[in-house]
Task: structure prediction
Amino acid sequence: MPLGLHFLDHIVNVHWAGGLAVEFGDRGEDARDPAED
Amino acid sequence: MSYIQIEQGIPDFNKAVISFWFRVPQKSLDELRADTEAENAKAGDNQWHTYPRLHRIMPLLTFGELFEGYKLGTQPGPDASYNENYWYTPGDSWVLMFTESRTYNTGAMLVNKAPQPINPSFIGIAYGGEKNAEEGGGYNYNLFINLQTRDRGDGASNVFGLGRFSQNDVNTGYPTGAALYAVPYESHWDQSLGCISRAPAPGNPHISHTTREDVTQMWMGQYGSDSFSSSLFDIEVMPDTWHHVLISFDLSKTTSTRGPVGIFDNNDCGADTFTHIDNSVSNLCQIWIAFDDENYTNGEAAEGHGLKGPNDWQSRFGLQAYFAGGGSSHSTGWGAMGQWTDATVNSGPAGSYTFPASPLPSSNYNFGIPAGANMVDHIRIVEMAEFQMWTGVTVDTGILSNRRAFIDDNGKPVNPTKAVATGPDDKDPKPPAERLLGKKPEILLHGSSNWKIGYNTGTLGIIIETIVDEDGTVTEKITKIPSGQFTPIARISKYKPEPALEETESA
Result:
């Protein structure tokens, strides 16, 4: 796991603005897809 | 199927507050029903069928140790026999006319007929079969909670027993003729009780004993370990709409449960005596559930289970002990054929069980949303948002202002990271739920992009340090704690619309 420096504000607001929900259970490949937003 | 998990789980706990949103497509419920019915069809009439874990369950959260149980059956125990002796009095004393041997079984034995894996702890949706016509048809899907403890019931006793029978010879016959006054004559007579007085044939009384063998440990072993479930609650889940779940529980109470005792005696045509001690339970655990901002509590059915308070929660073993009666019955009676019987049924002490309040075994086992790797086969398409979990604290979901720390008046999520001042003098504003519960959540999954990478911004996932530079600049340094971060597996997609309760006509 990467260790990083962030501003708390980044967590608080940016992700909030980016939407809250996700969908699980897609029958896609067993692969990580962390970059897509 | 995709999921996020903390492979090594989270530290063991026995109090928690869990809040999250979910939305289940009709298609997922249809698949749950089809798969459940297919498994039931596979089982057919075979009562020893081994069902997979999470049978009839679509998980939203799974964690905890995986226990193994078994299917219990019975088989006859050893046989024994006694004689029936028929006496008569050709002269002035008893003579044996003939004897017949009777065989009986001394009682059933428990046998392990098949393995039965036990569910992990979970929050999920349970398929409950077809609705009846009065309910308008369709199918039952309910929110269901199962917490699997580590307690195997070692301290329990007399919660389940099996009868053990023994009898000695039966001796029947009447004195007649010269023997009427020659053989010993006993004076037992009570017309009102219907007891017949006779001179007894030799070898009386006929003693019939039933005792109870305590097989509690084998009985409890079928369930793997003790568990708490929401089976007394009826919380319907509708498809294709957002739902909010707010659950809290307190399993830190050492609960003592005892079954009832009854002692009956009818001795030799005397008056009946009956003494009775009620079952009892003390120091119950608690559960609080709000679903879609509506609080749920124990209904009337709960009182019959010894649950007095609206949030009392009793474990499976506790419920079984509550109904496990002890006591004895003794009766003596004269039979029409001149024998008399002394019958004792001794069930021993009442069932007894103490839930030891040991924390849920969570550490070292997958903690997954909607399920961990060990339950991946049961994941179905589901939308989720705003997962928050605190351990070591509880919340009463029946108090509206408590619910407002999670869901607002418009049925929308309260931002769990946005500090809100309680008034103009509040110098230390906090997010409402953090203020209510007195600490930050251990797990916080806030925002689609955090969910997708499994970024836990709760206290198990990050350390926040405030750093003041020489020039007075204040920054916050955030360090991820690897052991508290989720690993995302397979594709997790951003989803719209955002979570919100649908407006109802009354709202």
Q: What stands out?
A: Chain A touches chain B through 32 residues (CB under 8 Å).
